[in-house]
């Protein structure tokens, strides 16, 4: 089981065209206390994240619960204003410094599919209004009849019955069907990027595959890019072209699928890989079970965030004074770990800086 | 990880069919289905509907005007059959009497191209002025002035069964069997200070003084002849209802029944009850609507905005909560007059506070739901998020609280009416159930002999309040999302 066996339906992403470019993204949530809402601390949910997504590409974003994956997605979608630091450019347009009409125009191009198929659909609206709302808001249809036809098209596209299902309410659908409704809503505006926040984790295993297939089919047809958020590597393996592994608000390792699964460098990536139930007895990887708990993002460990659970950790990993080096192992495969220096052909391309926290 | 299967979307759709009926069932339909299973709530629902309809159709269904006084009747117990008469009946030969001058049945019959005969059996009364000298509540002396006999000063005055005492100004009857020196004065004369004089009339009737009056009508409805005891009574006649012992139209006695009795001014209790319900329900509904409108919008906005704005808006609510609102309502009514509009505003303005708090709490929870984020991502503005996504989802709670607010407001208005703050419109008092209860309590009498005056409005109010509360409770259960889908 490796990425090379990925399904042939993957249409090639266009790596010359960057759809979304994120640099130095930080999102901290202030902790307020007392009568006058004094800020007594910060939850550093996202603390310096960088990645690019190309046209037609799926970037998997993987990490344990609480590492800030959802926060990354929502910050980019401007659902968690204001951003703490960093820039995001959507096809060259600044995402964080626009308002009003520009923001609305941008929203049309970036959509989201949520994890929870129950709370993501308004129980008081019919499927028609849920899917059609976007069309009305952006004036993409004139009149009810056209809207209905367009919604029916969308339902057919996501595998729902355009006639029977259109006037029903969410509670009449199963989890998988609800997720299809959410997908129809997301593609209604023909966006270029969809952030899929664990779109299948709440579903039955058998249904998960159907939804992932559907997402892939839509990507081919509509040339959409996905930021595909997931808990474990097993889910993203099949759908992603590249994968970013996130730990406690930072990217630990990012690479294309083959390279990451075939040649993982970061101990955290390896630990995640070993967590995949592997049917192959001759698997090249040693199981590396992950000791301990994820530390709290309110008081993240100094130096490398992972050092508290890392058996390779050295003294230089544990200090805020020494930056964590970022190595490029192969083109496009970057890892933020000292282990990168011992890999053949690795070049140091940058570093994770700490200690500017008090300025914010 | 399980590899994606080759199942087609069509296959999935086919498998999902037949799970439910073809037409979508909204949450409200589901709630209604479950409400129908709750017997108490449905009883409450139907009673509320009947009450509302009767209030709405008061003009059509109430047998009399609630203000029409038939003083000669006095307070009659329920189911009393009485003669159909008008306050004053005037007949002039060659003229057609107006509807306000003849009983309804007679007015209906006139002008149908047939001649009719209206026959009154009249019993004249001998009226003797009675002068009572009172000291405080005690009778000091009694003066009688029978016609042509000077002044008689008896120690006691006995009132026979067919006789009665009457207050000359108002025509009100004083129920008493005997007045004696040094005894307590009759109820209506009590409460005065010092020595004073009260004038009453002793009305005596004797069977020998009876005679018949016949009024003939020609086919066009005009009076053709007036005949008194077999002789022509001249061109015109004015008849007071108090002297009439029987009235017959073409051989049919003209009578009707006051199902719930009458009050001391001779007003029909049923009609007053129906119109009283109209006022009570109107006040309840309108004040609730005001609270609904203000409270829902205020609460939803506050909850959605959150942060400082929410904090400030909720502090305002807290401050308003602290004001003793009934006191405020009373002040408003006293200061700006007892207009019903003031009452609506005053009651509505205090009711919205709770509604705002409830809706805010709901919205605080709802705005964390992902469908709100979805709407924002799709480009919906705050107004749309508020009105299309947040408020509709608070509706269940709002409906329940509304159903429970209506009886609350009714009760508050009744309390105001009970302490005498009856509202008015165009200078006429609007007597709600609360006002009727108050009237009934005052008129009850020492031994409760006028019980029906208190009983009917009390029953009507309690039944309505119970019904609305049962309905509200039933709705709360029916709209409870945890119970959804249960039968
Ligand atoms: N609105 C918020 N206010 C304060 N803290 C928050 C908020 N949203 C998220 N956090 C915190 O930020 C951290 C990252 O949360 P996030 O939801 O992004 O994690 P995640 O990777 O998506 O986790 P999961 O896999 O469980 O969905 C968590 O510690 C969380 O408690
Ligand atoms: Mg998440």
Please give a structural write-up.
The complex is a heterodimer of chains A (360) and B (487). Chain A has one domain (3-91, 192-359): Rossmann fold (3-Layer(aba) Sandwich). By secondary structure, chain A is α/β, with parallel strands linked by helices. Chain A has helices spanning 69-76, 100-107, 127-137, 144-157, 175-187, 205-222, 233-239, 257-262, 267-274, and strands spanning 14-33, 38-55, 58-62, 85-90, 93-94, 110-113, 193-197, 225-230, 242-247, 250-256, 324-330, 333-335, 347-352. In chain A, 26% of the residues lie in helices and 26% in strands. Chain A has 9 helices and 13 strands. With 487 residues, chain B is an alpha+beta fold. Chain B has 3 domains: 30-59 and 266-483, MetI-like (MetI-like fold, Orthogonal Bundle), CATH 1.10.3720.10; 80-124 and 209-258, no CATH class; 126-204, no CATH class. Helices cover 46% and strands 20% of the residues of chain B. Chain B is built from 13 helices and 17 strands. The longest helix of chain B is centred in the middle third of the chain and has 37 residues, at 269-305. At the A-B interface, strand 6, helix 3, helix 5, helix 6 and helix 7 of A face helix 1, helix 10 and helix 11 of B. Adenosine-5'-triphosphate (ATP) is lined by residues 29, 43, 45, 63, 65-71, 231, 297 of chain A.
Structural class of chain B: alpha+beta
Order of helices and strands of chain A: EEEHEEHEHHHEHEHEEHHEEE
Instruction: Pick out the low-confidence regions of chain A.
Output: 1-10
Alpha plus pi helix count of chain B: 13
Largest interface: A-B, 58 and 41 residues
Proportion of helical residues of chain A: 25-40%
SSE series of chain B: HHHHEEHEEEEEEEEEEEEEHHHHHHEEHH
What is the mean predicted local confidence, pLDDT of chain B?
84
Largest sheet: number of strands, sense, barrel closure of chain A: 9 strands, mixed
Key traits:
heterodimer; A: 360 residues; alpha/beta; Rossmann fold; 13 strands; disordered N terminus; B: 487 residues; alpha+beta; 3 domains; two-stranded antiparallel ribbon; 13 helices; 46% helix
């Amino acid at each position: 089981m490796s990425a090379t066996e990925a399904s042939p339906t993957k249409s090639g992403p266009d790596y010359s065209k960057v759809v979304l470019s994120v640099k130095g993204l930080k999102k901290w949530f202030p902790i307020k206390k007392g009568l006058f809402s004094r800020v007594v601390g910060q939850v550093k949910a996202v603390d310096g994240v960088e990645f690019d997504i190309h046209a037609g590409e799926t970037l998997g974003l993987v990490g344990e619960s609480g590492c800030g994956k959802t926060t990354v997605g929502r910050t980019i979608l401007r659902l968690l204003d204001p951003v703490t630091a960093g820039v995001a450019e959507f096809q060259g347009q600044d995402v964080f410094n626009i308002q009003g009409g520009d923001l609305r125009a941008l929203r049309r191009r970036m959509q989201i599919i949520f994890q929870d198929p129950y709370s993501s659909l308004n129980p008081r609206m019919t499927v028609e209004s849920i899917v059609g709302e976007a069309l009305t808001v952006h004036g993409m249809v004139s009149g009810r009849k056209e809207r209905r036809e367009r919604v029916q098209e969308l339902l057919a596209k996501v595998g729902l019955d355009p006639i029977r299902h259109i006037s029903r309410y969410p509670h009449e659908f199963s989890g998988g069907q609800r997720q299809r409704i959410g997908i129809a809503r997301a593609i209604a505006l023909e966006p270029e990027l969809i952030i899929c926040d664990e779109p299948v984790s709440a579903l039955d295993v058998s249904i998960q595959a159907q939804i992932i297939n559907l997402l892939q089919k839509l990507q081919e047809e509509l040339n959409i890019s996905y930021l595909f958020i997931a808990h474990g590597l097993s889910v993203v393996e099949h759908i992603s072209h590249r994968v970013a592994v996130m730990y406690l608000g930072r990217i630990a390792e990012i690479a294309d699928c083959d390279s990451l699964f075939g040649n993982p460098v970061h101990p955290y990536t390896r630990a995640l890989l070993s967590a995949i139930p592997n049917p192959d007895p001759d698997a090249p990887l040693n199981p590396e079970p992950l000791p301990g708990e994820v530390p709290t993002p309110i008081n993240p460990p100094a130096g490398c965030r992972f050092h508290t659970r890392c058996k390779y950790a050295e003294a230089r990993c544990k200090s805020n004074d020494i930056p964590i080096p970022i190595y490029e192992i192969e083109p496009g495969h970057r890892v933020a770990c000292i282990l990168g220096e011992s890999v053949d052909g690795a070049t140091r391309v940058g570093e994770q800086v700490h200690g500017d926290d008090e300025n914010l | 990880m399980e590899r994606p299967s080759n199942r087609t979307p069509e296959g999935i759709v086919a498998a999902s069919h037949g799970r439910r009926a073809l037409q979508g069932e909204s949450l409200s339909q589901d709630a209604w289905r479950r409400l129908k299973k709750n017997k108490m709530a449905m009883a409450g629902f139907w009673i509320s509907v009947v009450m509302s309809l009767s209030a709405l159709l008061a003009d059509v269904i109430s047998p009399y005007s609630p203000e029409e006084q038939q003083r000669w009747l006095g307070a009659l117990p329920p189911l009393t059959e009485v003669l159909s008469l008008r306050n004053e009946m005037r007949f002039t030969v060659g003229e057609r009497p107006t509807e306000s001058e003849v009983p309804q049945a007679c007015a209906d019959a006139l002008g149908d191209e047939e001649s009719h005969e209206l026959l009154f059996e009249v019993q004249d009364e001998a009226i003797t002025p009675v002068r009572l000298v009172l000291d405080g509540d005690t009778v000091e002396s009694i003066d009688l002035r029978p016609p042509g006999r000077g002044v008689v000063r008896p120690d006691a005055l006995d009132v026979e069964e067919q006789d009665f005492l009457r207050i000359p100004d108002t025509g009100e009857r004083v129920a008493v069997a005997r007045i004696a020196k040094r005894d307590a004065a009759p109820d209506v004369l009590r409460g005065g200070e010092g020595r004073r004089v009260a004038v009453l009339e002793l009305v005596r009737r004797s069977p020998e003084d009876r005679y018949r009056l016949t009024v003939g009508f020609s086919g066009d409805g005009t009076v053709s002849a007036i005949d008194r005891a077999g002789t022509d009574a001249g061109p015109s006649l004015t008849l007071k209802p108090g002297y009439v012992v029987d009235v017959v139209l073409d051989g049919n006695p003209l009578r009707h029944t006051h199902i719930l009795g009458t009050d001391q001014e001779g007003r029909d209790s049923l009609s007053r009850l129906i119109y009283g319900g109209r006022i009570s329900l109107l006040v309840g509904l309108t004040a609730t609507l005001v609270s609904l409108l203000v409270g829902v919008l205020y609460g939803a906005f506050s909850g959605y905005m959150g942060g400082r704005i929410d904090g400030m808006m909720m502090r305002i609510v807290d401050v308003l909560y602290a004001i003793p609102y009934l006191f405020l309502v009373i002040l408003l009514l006293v200061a700006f007059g007892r207009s019903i509009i003031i009452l609506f505003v005053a009651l509505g303005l205090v009711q919205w506070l709770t509604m705002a708090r409830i809706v805010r709490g709901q919205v605080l929870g709802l705005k964390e739901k992902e469908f709100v984020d979805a709407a924002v991502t799709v480009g919906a503005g705050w107004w749309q998020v508020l009105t299309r996504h947040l408020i509709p989802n608070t509706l269940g709670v709002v409906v329940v609280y509304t159903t429970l607010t209506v009886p609350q407001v009714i009760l508050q208005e009744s309390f105001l009416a009970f302490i005498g703050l009856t509202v008015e419109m165009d200078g006429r008092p609007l007597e709600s159930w609360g006002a009727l209860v108050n009237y009934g309590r005052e008129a009850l009498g020492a031994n409760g002999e006028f019980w029906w005056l208190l009983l009917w409005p009390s029953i009507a109010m309690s039944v309505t309040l119970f019904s609305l509360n049962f309905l509200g409770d039933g709705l709360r259960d029916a709209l409870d999302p945890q119970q959804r889908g249960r039968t």
